[in-house]
Amino acid sequence: MYSPSRHDILASVAFLLITALLIFAGWWGVYYYRNMPARVDFNRYPVRGIDVSAHNGAIDFSEVKRSGYDFVWIKASEGETFRDTLFTRNFDAATAASLRTGAYHYFRFDCDGLLQALNLCRALDGRDPELGVAIDVEEQGNATGIPTPVIVSRLAAMLDYLNMRGFPITLYTNKDGYYEYIRDEFSDYPLWICSFTNDNPIDDAPQWTIWQFSHSGKVPGIRGNVDENVMRAK
Fold first, then answer.
1. 185 is in which domain, residue-wise?
2. Is the same domain home to 87 and 55?
3. In this predicted structure, what is the pLDDT of residue 207?
4. Which sign, positive or negative, has the C-alpha torsion 57, 62, 66, 68?
């Protein structure tokens, strides 16, 4: 019966380690490429902002404002029932710090659009965000296997209700989401685009108004990483 030598065992272990390292390096390279901050010309886009949720913990919005940031999008709700536990505190503190505020809702593909709109309105609880509301439409973290026409129909129902209530609406997405859900159906809405392409976030979406260029910003007044954005001059 064959019995592997010590040399054979060591060679096999080395091969497995090298293979694992190559796989990890490849995965990390793809992740870093997709998430590394884009190069932004702040002379061209001088109006800077952030977007936050309860995940960012306690925030000193006065310090954020003193650091030169102008606006903040704050998570309010998700799906039909979820509400961000720090929305009220974040919104009121950001407003008191003279930051321009907007509220955003994470759109669930597997939930009724009208019920999601009602959840967002209840989360706002009478607050009137200066920037209006943003609907986050992306596949990451969302339900899978739902046909695009169903998602588009549910999103349309949500937007119809919010329009009826008179809210200014912005649609947030990344490039994949833009081409799959937004471009052909909702191109008349202002676009908040997540893109890590240098200098210009997206070539064929002239309606973009806000560019999220980083998931790893370091901003005074916030512990850890935070999403950073710039606003396009009108």
1. 41-231
2. yes
3. 86
4. positive
